[in-house]
Each structure stands twice: as C-alpha cells, then as structure tokens.
Amino acid sequence: MSATFYALLAIALWATLATLGTALSHLPPFLLTGLALIIGSVPSWPLVLRDRRAWRVPPRTLALGVYGLFGFHFLLFIALRHAPPVEANLVNYLWPLLMVVLAPVLLPGVSLRPLHVVAALLGFAGAAIAILGARGSGAALPGAPATYWGFLPAAGSAFIWASYSLWTKRVTPFPTSAIGLFGLVSGVLSLACHALLEPSVVLSAKDGLLVALCGLGPLGAAFFVWDMALKRGDARQIGILSYLTPLASTALLLAVTGRALTASIALAAALIISAAVMGTRAK
To answer: Which domain holds residue 113?
Structure first.
C-alpha cells in the first residue's frame, strides 16, 4: 500500500473525532483521551505477547512518542479551556503547514520548493474557511469562555504534532506496533491528569461504546496508519494532504447533525483539494 493510502486512511479516521467528541462532550476531556488512547493500544498487545521486540524501543524513541501523543492532547485541551474553541482549533491546524515548512529544518536532505509553500498556504486557507464556516452553521463544538492566552498552547500543540511527525523519521527505526506503547503510556498520563484536574464521572453503557469506537478509530488505528504513511512517504506531501482532516471532519459533523453543507464548505473543499493536487505533484 502507498503512503498516500495510509495518510488518507488516518485522515478518514480523524474526521470522525469531532462527531464522536460531540456525542461525548459531557465527559471530562482527559478522561476521554486517556481511556481512548489505552483502548487504541490494545490491538498491539497480542504482538507483544508473541514477540517482546514489538514494543522494544530506545528511551529516546519512547519519549518522542509520549511527547507527540500526550503533549499534543495536553496542550490542545488547555487551549480549548482558555480560548474560543473554533479559533483555537484553527490555530491548532497550523500543524500541516508546520510539517511542510519545518521539513527541511528537521529532516536532512529535504528541501522546500515554492510549490510546497503555496500548496500549504492554500490548504490552510481552506481549513480556515471550513472551521470558521462551521461556526456560522452552528456546528462548532462547545467550549470555554473566550480568553485569548489559550492561543499559545494551541500553537504549541500544533508544533508538537508537526515536529513529532517529522522526528519519527530521525530516530532509530522502530516497528509501527510500538505506537501501541506510546498510546498506552500517554493514556496513563492522561488519566493521571484526569485524577488531578477533573471531576470524577460514571460512564453509561452508551458512553462506553462510543469511547471504545473513539479508541479503536481516531485515537487508535489512526496513529498506527499515520506512522505507516510517514515511514513510506514524503512528509511535505503528507502534511498538505492532512488539510483534508478539518474539511472532512466539519462536513461529517454537519451531515450527522442534519445541517446543510454550505457554500463555505464547497469553497474549502476546492482550496484543499487544489492544495493536495499541487502538493502531490511537487517533488
């Protein structure tokens, strides 16, 4: 399978996160993330039972995995508590742009061509239109009171995911099954944050089912196939393709909630698809 296929599969899984998150918005975010990450790590457990090398990675690599999975979610949740959620989400979606522009800085032998920059900016414009247009349609997720220092952790979460995605190509090669270890450790840390920072709650049977779906999909399998994409493909092109995530996420949320797809979504689609085509043609 090609890197593009795995990247699109990760994007499709991440597109379900906003819809699942809306259905589970009554749960404390660190509790949801911790449970989902641990559930997402479960498919790799049988591999460890058969061969311990499936999770055998150097401490530096484990630290990088926890930095990516836990650090990204930690700062994003802080941002959503202290900044307008739609705008914070938009700042967070700087990560595909950062993947493109940081690639020549963090990856040796990678250069940046003008077409990559144009495609990345075009994709960010499309993401901005999709996310801000969702607010006008009533599809934005509920969030914290509007203060603005929260944009700083939102930008920090974007940098963490972009740099994690690029640095996985710099560390000693590790099996994709090790993503399960990253998720397990990150999930335990998230549950520790829940115990320290959030009120305790009791999950219903429906909550448990939706949390399991979240863990097996956008907070589980998505990370595994994302790693497969990064191992096989060009980080600059994958970063540009990633702008499909906010577009697909917003469109799915509108469809599930029964709201009509708007002209802003159509415009965002045109911009992001154009960016993806440009990015895949840039060498």
So the answer is: 3-281
